[in-house]
């Protein structure tokens, strides 16, 4: 078995042990010193740090050229976390997120995207965000190797209290639950030549494809949602060198006609920016 996958499973097991101790400790006194209960968490963090250092060394010694693909959306959007600003873009190399990007819809007409608040409302409905339900298109021709949409779309975390709950409760729980709980509903496309595209946080029940399907560039895959580790409806997109999130490495990308937008940069993708296949599926 791949060493990175073994490390990921050991890290997962250590987090499970730690959380189980915390839960048991709420009701009974543990038969050992309190500080010993933190050893599994420290071990899990150590494995994570070692993996991050190893990934950083791989990035420093191997910097692949960006792969040019079509944008996964149409309309007016802005970037949030972007490899144009820093690498790794999400602060970690894990789950092949080294060059991942998050984008949110910023339509010129209609209701605007709600701004974050300090206190109220604690959370918002997903339909308050223009990204929710936006079509997701194949960035190139390829084969669907994974597609799932059974996880729920939770409320947005629009306030400080909501974000704290997201990170301290939901975030830890999903990390322990494994990669699929972090990325939520997701689609993985095999684009050929060792390149795979991941679309994360897909809307529940929105898939238009299933594993094994051959798709053309611009074909409708599903809709943008708010599943997994997501504070609001948005598109998380990345390229990687394998279909398994726990062992793959990130690959740089460039969107045709757009490039790699930096955080805060607004860009518009015309309806004719993807292949004609889109018209057959919408």
Secondary structure elements and pairings:
Elements: H1 3-25, H2 39-61, E1 67-69, E2 75-79, E3 101-105, E4 135-137, E5 142-148, H3 160-177, H4 179-183, E6 186-192, E7 195-200, E8 214-215, E9 220-223, E10 235-240, E11 250-251, E12 253-255, E13 266-269
Parallel strand pairs: 1-12
Antiparallel strand pairs: 2-3, 2-13, 3-10, 4-9, 5-6, 5-8, 6-7, 7-10, 10-11
Q: Note the gap between the termini.
A: 42 Å
**Outline:** globular
CATH superfamily of the largest domain: Glucose Permease (Domain IIA)
Helix-strand sequence? HHEEEEEHHEEEEEEEE
Structure notes:
By secondary structure, the protein is of the alpha+beta class. The protein is built from 4 helices and 13 strands. The chain has 2 domains: 3-61; 67-280, Glucose Permease (Domain IIA). The protein has helices at residues 3-25, 39-61, 160-177, 179-183, and strands at 67-69, 75-79, 101-105, 135-137, 142-148, 186-192, 195-200, 214-215, 220-223, 235-240, 250-251, 253-255, 266-269. Strands 2, 3, 5, 6, 7, 8, 10, 11 and 13 form a 9-stranded antiparallel sheet that branches. Strands 1-12 form a two-stranded parallel sheet. The protein starts with a helix and ends in a 13-residue tail after the last strand. The model is unreliable at 276-282 (pLDDT under 50).
Output the keywords.
4 helices; alpha+beta; Glucose Permease (Domain IIA); 282 residues; 24% helix
Provide a concise account of the structure shown.
It is built from 4 helices and 13 strands. With 282 residues, the chain is α+β, with helices and mostly antiparallel strands. It is globular, with a radius of gyration of 20 Å.
């Amino acid at each position: 078995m791949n060493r990175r996958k073994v490390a990921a499973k050991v890290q997962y097991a250590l987090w499970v042990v730690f959380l189980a101790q915390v839960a048991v400790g709420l009701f009974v006194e543990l038969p050992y010193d309190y500080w010993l209960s933190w050893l599994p968490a420290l071990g899990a963090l150590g494995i994570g740090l070692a993996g991050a250092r190893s990934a950083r060394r791989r990035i420093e010694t191997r910097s692949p050229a960006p792969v040019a693909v079509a944008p996964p959306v149409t309309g007016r959007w802005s970037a949030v976390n972007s490899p144009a600003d820093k690498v790794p873009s999400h602060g970690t190399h894990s789950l092949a997120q080294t060059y991942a990007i998050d984008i949110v819809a910023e339509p010129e007409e209609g209701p605007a995207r709600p701004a974050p608040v300090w206190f109220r409302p604690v959370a918002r409905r997903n339909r308050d965000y223009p990204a929710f339900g936006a079509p997701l298109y194949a960035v190139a021709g390829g084969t669907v190797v994974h597609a799932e949409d059974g996880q729920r779309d939770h409320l947005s975390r629009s306030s400080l209290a909501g974000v704290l709950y997201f990170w301290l409760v939901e975030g830890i729980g999903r990390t322990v639950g494994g990669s699929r709980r972090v990325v939520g509903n997701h689609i993985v496309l095999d684009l050929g030549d060792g390149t795979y595209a991941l679309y994360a946080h897909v809307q529940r029940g929105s898939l238009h494809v299933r594993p094994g399907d051959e798709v053309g560039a611009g074909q409708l895959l599903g809709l943008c949602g708010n599943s997994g580790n997501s504070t609001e409806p948005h598109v998380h997109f990345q390229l990687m060198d394998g279909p398994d999130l726990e062992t793959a490495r990130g690959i740089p990308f460039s969107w045709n006609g757009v490039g790699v937008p930096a955080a805060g940069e607004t860009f518009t993708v015309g309806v004719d920016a993807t292949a004609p296949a889109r018209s057959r599926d919408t």
